[in-house]
Amino acid sequence: MSSPLSPTCGLWEFSLYHYARPGVSDLCLRLQDEHGANVNIVLWTLWLGLRGQLLDAAQLAQAQRKVHAWDQHYILPLRQLRRRLKVEFGTSDDSIEAVRTQIKQAELLAEKHLQRLLEALSDSGEQNAVVHTQMMADNLRVYLHSLAVSENIADSLLKLIIS
User: Fold this and answer.
1) 59, 93, 160, 163: which sits with the fewest CB atoms below 10 Å from its CB?
2) How far apart (Å, rounded) are the C-alpha atoms in residues 155 and 43?
């Protein structure tokens, strides 16, 4: 396995590493909940840029079509169920928390599959060791612009990822 900071790493490894960095998950969830962003696509745009692949609107649309059904039919229902359990029952009942934990694991596996779908859309050519931070920024902006997200949020996420 390559380093999650390397252009040769896989999307899942890249995502796990960067999503765990301070502030990244909070900002990604804000993009998801307030702007309808797909966090997996957000991370994919950054990963493509890291690999030196520039994203355009047509490729983005293809990716969104490719993952839409999987996201709508499997990931979102699992997320909604997990969140509804927390709202209805809180977190004090250990048996309900065990159920929520299992649902979260299923949600993560479904997201891993979605990332495989996205990864399959990328150029599988050999990657060099150069980190393309400008392409990461450009790719993220292509996606967030399509959602009418302000440049400030994109800049904040980029600072957290690239720093």
Assistant:
1) 163
2) 14
Contacts of 128 (CB under 8 A, 6+ apart): 7, 52
**Structural tokens at position 145:** 């612009």
CA distance 121 to 80: 28
Distance of CA 29 to the CA centre of its chain: 10
The pTM assigned to this predicted structure is: 0.89
- For helices 151-162 and 133-146, the axis angle rounded to 10 degrees is 150
Residue 89 and residue 70: Cα distance in Å, rounded?
28
User: Cα–Cα distance between 67 and 52 in angstroms, integer?
Assistant: 22
Cα 119 to chain centroid distance, Å, stands at 12
CB-based contacts of 145, cutoff 8 Å, min separation 6:
none
Rounded Cα–Cα distance for residues 145 and 150 (Å): 8
